[in-house]
Task: inverse folding
């Protein structure tokens, strides 16, 4: 499903997850594992192959958007997620984003900057995840 008009809320959440995972330059296997695990927790009944299709669609769309230097779609997905989740859900999703960013063992400034932007867009002033330690240098 490459047409964004046909995307579900899970597609948009996957797109935001992919944006954070790739904000340090690449999506590592560790980040992808956490990304898929966290996304699956939002819809445990979804078959693994369908979940992977959603992940791959989101990652491909993000790659295409990055090539065109298009940020509008990320803003739209961030806003759609904010609209469909209550505050508790936004806090949980933000916790997921921190876990994805930290999964590769390095928390880069680009990841932190994007997480701050998302937190502000979601109106989420807190996260439940413990302090991740000092950021890595690029």
Result:
């Amino acid at each position: 499903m490459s047409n964004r008009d046909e995307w579900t809320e899970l597609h948009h959440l996957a797109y935001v997850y992919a944006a954070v995972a790739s904000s340090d330059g690449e999506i590592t296997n560790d980040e992808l594992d956490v990304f898929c695990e966290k996304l699956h927790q939002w819809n445990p009944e979804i078959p693994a192959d369908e979940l992977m299709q959603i992940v791959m669609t989101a990652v491909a769309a993000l790659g295409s958007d990055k090539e065109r230097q298009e940020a509008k779609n990320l803003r739209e997905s961030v806003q759609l997620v904010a609209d469909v989740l209550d505050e508790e859900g936004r806090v949980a999703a933000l916790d997921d984003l921190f876990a994805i960013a930290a999964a590769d063992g390095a928390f880069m400034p680009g990841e932190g900057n994007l997480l701050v932007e998302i937190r502000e867009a979601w109106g989420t002033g807190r996260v439940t995840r413990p302090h991740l330690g000092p950021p890595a240098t690029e």
User: Anything to note?
Assistant: The chain is about 65% helix and 0% strand. The chain has one domain: 4-122.
